[in-house]
Specification:
11 helices; 14% strand
């Protein structure tokens, strides 16, 4: 699609997965995590009180698939809440486990979500993103991360470990605030955290159904899509279009620099 002429933003709101990082699905992560969860439960409750290792692995596979379907459905409501840690483990994974095992994973759900998020993917910073963040800092334009997440803790740790946290002024994650995109309040929270009006922000995501819709609902100054692996895997037909689509972080950085040059910054 043609790129609109975009005004220079006073703030940048960036999605995490697909924009800041590109993720590669880890092969066999369900088996490894299932074995780990089974060992934890057997160690604390005894083998007689927990499902078999095979059952634990199978329920993690089924639970993550059904939660993915739920998330696709939640792209339709105007202001969806997030699926909580305890609900994910208690209802989507362990609904039919013996009560002691189900109660144990509910009790440790936050930590188990962190382990699941770490286990399921290998992450790498997308080329061009560090340069974008550094340019924004030089220009005095604050950046916030606004992202759906099962464990925002993992995203925070990634930014810290990869020297990006100091280039980001605020981080808003759905599991921590209890709502998820396309709930427009996610973007409102991000803009508020950097003290910039929503209409003066660019919002950059990688999905039309979550990100573009969310930006339109919130009234951002510009809606931008960075193409990623799942960008065109829409769960349903959607007419909503962003203001610009770019192929990668370098192109996003160039778009940002172009807006700066046109404004005389």
């Amino acid at each position: 699609m043609p790129t609109a002429v975009l005004t220079t933003p006073r703030g940048l709101l960036l999605d995490f997965g697909g924009v800041i990082v590109q993720s590669e699905r880890a092969v066999g992560w369900q088996q490894r995590l299932g074995g780990e969860v089974h060992e934890l439960l057997a160690g604390s409750l005894g083998a007689h009180a927990v499902p078999s290792r095979r059952r634990v692995v199978g329920d993690i596979v089924a639970g993550t698939a059904s939660a993915g379907n739920w998330r696709d459905a939640m792209s339709r409501p105007f202001a969806p809440d997030e699926l909580g840690w305890a609900q994910f483990w208690g209802d989507f994974v362990a609904a039919d486990w013996p009560a002691p095992a189900r109660e144990a994973v509910i009790r440790d759900a936050k930590e188990l979500c962190r382990r699941l998020t770490l286990a399921k993917a290998h992450r790498a910073t997308r080329p061009g993103i560090r340069e974008l963040l550094m340019t924004a800092r030089r220009q005095g334009i604050p950046v916030a991360v606004v992202s759906n997440a099962l464990s925002g803790q993992v995203h925070r740790a990634y930014l810290d470990e990869n020297g990006l946290a100091d280039l980001v002024a605020a981080q808003i994650y759905s599991d921590e605030v209890g709502i998820r995109k396309p709930n427009p309040r996610m973007i409102v929270l991000g803009a508020r955290a950097i003290d910039v009006a929503v209409a003066d922000c660019w919002y950059v995501g990688d999905n039309f159904d979550r990100d573009t819709v969310c930006g339109r609902r919130a009234g951002v100054g510009a809606n931008i899509i960075v193409e990623a692996r799942s960008t065109y895997e829409l769960p349903y037909d959607l007419d909503e279009q962003p203001d610009a689509v770019v192929p990668d972080g370098h192109a996003l950085h160039a778009l940002f620099e172009d807006s700066l040059s046109r404004s005389g910054s």
